[in-house]
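re: ur question from yesterday

yeah so i grabbed the chain u mentioned. its 158 aa long if i counted rite. heres the sequnce exactly as i have it in my notes:
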Amino acid sequence: MNETVTSATELNAMSIAEILEALPHRYPFLMIDRIVDIDGDESAIGIKNVTFNEPIFLGHFPGNPIFPGVLIIEGMAQTAGAIVIKHDSTGGKKNIVLMLGVDKARFRKPAGPGDTIEFHIAKIHRRRNVGRYKAEAKVKGIVIAEAEITAMIVGADS
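ran it thru and got these structure tokens back, copy pasting raw so excuse formatting
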């Protein structure tokens, strides 16, 4: 007898197609290209490949392109939101995640064209439809930014 045992939490990933299904964001405001190492709504790593042809670099800053810190925070929030939507998805019911707050934000180093930003997300706590996540943005393993993100899950029609 060969039995397969599955755990309650399963490590997996989200492709760009799955991210587009989970989040309402679209180009040029979608800040993640894929999500890996997902563990339910506990943790995940969002990936953003920064390219020189992104529209933000026309003005931030000509001759010295730096990926804006506020967009790094947005990438953190989108990563957390996508895993929560995927974790909570039930047939036919569509929810969205709204950011309620950003605390303890710190920017350590800039990111720019050619960098791959990893958004490391870990759940601090979640009660019903409100969750709080610790987030770190890393480039080549070095923390470039960190924050705590609080968000609320609401029905898409709300």
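noticed a couple things. The chain has one domain: 11-155. also Residues 1-10 have pLDDT under 50 and may be disordered.
anyway ttyl
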